Amino acid sequence: VKVKHKATEQTPDTNNSILLEKQVMNLTAENHSLREKNEQLEAQNKGLETEKENLTEQIRDISWNNLNISRSQWSIDAYCPKENNKRTCKPCQNGWDHVESSCYAVNDAKREEWKTWEEAQENCREKSSDLPVVINEEEKKNVSEKSWKYDGNKGYWIGLRVKDGKWKWLDGRNLTNSSWIDQLPSDGHCAISVQNEGFKSVNCNEKNRWICKKKAVVV
After folding, report:
1. 24 partner at 20 to 30 Å CA-CA among 41, 123, 184, 187?
2. C-beta atoms surrounding 175 within 10 Å
3. Residue closest to 134 by CA, chosen among 108, 94, 95, 167
4. pTM exceeds 0.70 for this model
5. What is the DSSP string of 145-173?
6. pLDDT of residue 69
């Protein structure tokens, strides 16, 4: 007797399951492919970032080199100006007075350009200098002679201010000669130099003219 096997019937649920499995396999393969592409893009991006950093560093180096060259040329032109195709070097650049081992610039700005003590110091720093730190009586006399009196009690900012309840110079030293300024230390006060009247205490936010000082170049 021959037995006939009944063919397996494909139900709708079975067909849907097979279709879903194929879709999952396709999506898995597609996801794997996308991951590989993403890894490749990340590697390329990392390479580009490294290249960008290298180029940025090269540009920075070139900029610094150009800046240093410009500064060197400025120093040469400032201290050794060329006249008739010949350079003559001097201890101070044009506009600065040479006294002993220092150079002084008296800033006789117009009233609308007067500065507070902090602003004056910042201006001096831009010129590679500072408000004057006076060392001795001789220098005090020299600074005083440059501090022409004008508008009553107005004078020129110097590198002396009240800090921690004491008169201190910009270099951190205390004012040791109390006869140089009559007023007692008062917070928020700085010193001006007035010709023939010595140093005077005024509010640091007051607007005044100022003097800058820096070392002279040995030539």
Report:
1. 41
2. 18
3. 167
4. no
5. HHS--BTTTB-EEEEEEEETTEEEETTS-
6. 38
Amino acid found at 56: T
- Pair of tokens at residue 31: 């996801």
Record the tokens describing residue 113, joined without a space.
Answer: 């350009």
- Residue 219 CA to residue 207 CA, distance in Å, equals 37
Structure tokens at 8: 């397996």
Right CATH number for 97-215 from 3.30.70.260, 3.10.100.10, 3.40.630.30, 3.90.1170.40? Answer: 3.10.100.10
Q: Token pair of 182, please? A: 């009559």
User: 41-96, pLDDT tens digit by residue?
Assistant: 888 888 788 777 777 666 655 544 443 434 444 567 777 777 777 877 888 888 89
User: E strands within the chain?
Assistant: 82-83, 86-87, 97-99, 102-107, 156-163, 166-169, 189-194, 198-203, 209-215
100: left (phi over 0), alpha (psi -120 to 50) or beta: left
